[in-house]
Amino acid sequence: MANCRAFAQVLLFFALSCQAAATYAPVPAKEDFLGCLMKEIPARLLYAKSSPDYPTVLAQTIRNSRWSTQQNVKPLYIITPTNASHIQSAVVCGRRHGVRLRVRSGGHDYEGLSYRSEKPETFAVVDLNKMRAVVVDGYARTAWVESGAQLGELYYAIAKNSPVLAFPAGVCPSIGVGGNFAGGGFGMLLRKYGIAAENVIDVKVVDPDGKLLDKSSMSADHFWAVRGGGGESFGIVVSWQVKLMPVPPTVTVFKIPKTVQEGAVDLVNKWQLVGPALPGDLMIRVIAAGNTATFEALYLGTCKTLTPLMSSQFPELGMNPYHCNEMPWIKSVPFIHLGKQAGLDDLLNRNNTFKPFAEYKSDYVYQPFPKPVWEQIFGWLAKPGAGIMIMDPYGATISATPEAATPFPHRQGVLFNIQYVNYWFAEPAGAAPLQWSKDIYNFMEPYVSKNPRQAYANYRDIDLGRNEVVNDISTYSSGKVWGEKYFKSNFQRLAITKGKVDPQDYFRNEQSIPPLIEKY
């Protein structure tokens, strides 16, 4: 075995498991971080900056092209584990040799902090791309899913086992399970079944000491924190056990666009009151772009029962049987995200070529907007460099759950969430979209949540604040600035838990939870 390892260290050329490229890592001259890794992890799973495949592996799941430019600080190494022991070894070696780890599952971190640093830092990335197994137990209505799986792969595996089971997580199929669950995770089932994190019943996580823990071997606070407290702060979650939820054999989807000339302002003005008050079986979100508001709905039932419900609750929209698209729940996922032409194969697509430059922000709304504000919003959406607004209604289950049940605190009283999204496709063209994002965010301030102005952790926004590091520890005071916007009063409990689980702040980035050490 020693001879084989020595031979591997000399050659270090192995076929990648999913492509015909070769891997190269330099032979370590001494017991350094790489040498430590190579004692336990096959060289074909390690990529140094000098590797010809390093740029491809790094870029593979960078979803926002802003974070692939030369100005971004890149990892010294990328580790692509295939099992939990590889992750444990990475943590032990990182602690021993002073190399921090960042963790990437699907690459959708809006600020790219799962694979880049804003300031010079010695770090490696644990890329979970090869750990994406899904095991469904239809009888128990549970599933184990590894953090590197995409949501689409989870949904597909569930539906393959049973067409009448589902899971309430994000809308976009290419989002990684690890990041989505860690920050909360919600989609078209949020009004019926809440967020992904509250439906997680067990985890396997590698802690800062390299130990593999599950619910039975970790503290109650640690288990609470990993389910919605943001990715990476409390260890590396290897896999999640989730409880699956019943859905009917047939669900109904509609998409109804309305322009300003067709009454979009009045309709959205009505929707902000109707959407959060509808039965939990019906979710109607709004995508506002340019002069058009598109009402996208998922109803857990047939067109026959949806049509009279819409006629009684929201007749102004003019929904009728012509708008209905009946299908199994699993087909609604690509339909809503990609449109009528999309199929189930799109749920398994890991070769996403849509990698724009992008800026994102978010808000929570507790009081309905006056109609003139909606008129002004559509004015903003018509400006040069304008992005879009995606608005998800709350109410029903997501709002009935207590704020402290999970770190995700946006519950009772929320009417809807807003995501501001802006794309552009060449770096020099970013000035107008970035300015628009900043300006509309400032314009909205009087009309959205206050003290704090809330944001969704999975819509990460570095403009809300950055950690300051003093004596090699992120300070609680700097983290509180942004942390209470994501987590409200739950932030303190998260920081206290961090102080118990990771007091030396090994797992950190610009917006990781800082440790708060309780003094007795």
TrEMBL record:
Keyword Transcription part of the UniProt annotation: no
Keyword check for Signal: yes
Keywords assigned by UniProt, alphabetized: FAD, Flavoprotein, Glycoprotein, Signal
Position of the signal peptide: 1-22
Cofactor dependency: FAD
Domain FAD-binding PCMH-type, residue spans: 71-247
PROSITE patterns hit by this protein: FAD_PCMH, PROKAR_LIPOPROTEIN
PANTHER family the record matches: OS08G0158400 PROTEIN
Family statement drawn from the similarity comment of this UniProt entry: Belongs to the oxygen-dependent FAD-linked oxidoreductase family.
Protein name: FAD-binding PCMH-type domain-containing protein
Species of origin: Triticum aestivum
